[in-house]
Design a protein that fits this description.
Keywords: Membrane, Transmembrane, Transmembrane helix. With about 375 residues, the chain is of the alpha/beta class. The protein has 14 helices and eight strands. Helix 5 packs antiparallel against helix 9 (about 225-235) and helix 12 crosses helix 13. The radius of gyration is 26 Å and the shape is elongated.
């Protein structure tokens, strides 16, 4: 049908476009938008499988995931190795799409609709990869760096971390040895100073290891979603110094973690945020979502694809009622064109699509 042609064209485009990108997925009917989004998602999954098979035929290594044995490998690399983005990694064609459907109507009752967008993003990324790798990345992980020259080495040992860990273990062993000698060896038991030194050295080195483990446990229990909810639930959150920078910091950690997982999984990652039901919300909240996409999530290295499924004839009057139109001559279409990187308008339903819809309705 005509709709299949439009959706497949868009899905193939999104597989090759640079990120971050905001796609204006414009269609006049809200119910039709849902079915078209489902078609785009299905076609992108097909394209993802095709690219994966083509990459394996070229002789490249098989991708891996942070599950089962791969989880142990990921934790080992997170703790002791630094990822490197090589030329071979940049040439990889296989993709993995993480689809996140965000219904703005579900968060329309809260004061800050844009916070719902950020928490939904953090929650689904954490759920996709697992809580433990992300918690370890918060404490021990490092952002990937680009390779120098033509080096194809993707992992570099973190010598500083290894030296610190071995130093703490040696100091801990020395402190325990001194303490055992002071407690068990005859003739030395009376030396109280030796016991104090041994217990102090053992407790100091052991406490550093325990603090690191507690930091990982804290990030495992308290997710990024809960951190942002705590900030927004505060009665004076609007007056907190650096409030927006705290939330942006959480998003930047998430972007660095996705870059790490790209190197680990040996594929390119793309997070597809499908934003729906935005034209059912109040004008101020509609403008807040646009501000969130512009200020919080549009990092130059962010692998985000925003699929804004809206009806422009409804969104534009909402935008023109808010204060974001100052300096744009109250022109909502001009603001929408500046906010959207790739506008994609779906024409009215063609005859084949209508016949297919009637056939499906009769069969059910």
């Amino acid at each position: 049908t005509e709709d299949d042609v439009y959706c497949r064209c868009l899905s193939r485009t999104l597989c090759h476009t640079a990120t971050p990108v905001t796609v204006g997925f414009y269609a006049p009917c809200g119910h039709r938008l849902e079915s078209l989004l489902n078609k785009v998602t299905a076609f992108m999954r097909e394209e993802m499988s095709r690219c994966e098979a083509a990459e394996l035929l070229r002789g490249h290594r098989k991708p891996r995931s942070p599950r089962g044995w791969g989880l142990l490998v990921a934790l080992w690399l997170l703790a002791f190795y630094e990822p490197v983005v090589t030329e071979g990694h940049l040439r990889r064609k296989n993709l993995e799409f993480i689809f996140i459907r965000f219904s703005a109507w579900e968060f329309a009752g809260c004061d800050k609709l844009w916070a719902g967008l950020v928490t939904t993003l953090c929650h689904h990324v954490r759920q996709h990869f697992g809580a433990l790798p992300l918690s370890v990345f918060h404490v021990l992980g490092s952002r990937p760096r680009f390779a120098s020259g033509f080096s194809q080495r993707e992992w570099v040992l973190k010598k500083g971390t290894c030296l610190k860990l071995w130093g703490l273990l040696l100091v801990l062993a020395a402190g325990l040895a001194i303490l055992l000698v002071a407690l068990l060896v005859p003739g030395v038991k009376d030396h109280r100073a030796l016991k104090v030194v041994g217990s102090a050295v053992a407790s100091l080195s052991g406490s550093s290891l325990v603090l690191g483990a507690l930091s990982i446990l804290k990030n495992f229990v308290v997710s990024e979603k809960k951190k942002i909810e705590r900030l927004t639930d505060s009665d004076r959150f609007a007056g907190q110094l650096g409030f927006m920078s705290k939330i942006r910091g959480e998003v930047e950690v998430l972007v660095d973690y996705l870059a790490f997982m790209e190197v680990f999984e040996r594929r390119r990652l793309r997070v597809v945020l499908e934003i729906t039901s935005l034209d059912l919300c109040y004008p101020e909240k509609v403008a807040g979502v646009f501000n969130a996409m512009a200020t919080l999530l549009s990092d130059a290295n962010a692998p985000f694809i925003f699929l804004l499924a809206v009806d422009p004839s409804v969104i534009v009057p909402c935008l023109e009622q808010t204060g974001c139109m100052k300096g744009l001559a109250d022109n909502g279409y001009l603001y929408l064109n500046r906010a959207v990187t790739l506008p994609f308008s779906i024409p009215e339903m063609g005859s084949r699509s209508r016949l297919r819809s009637v056939e499906a309705a009769i069969q059910t």
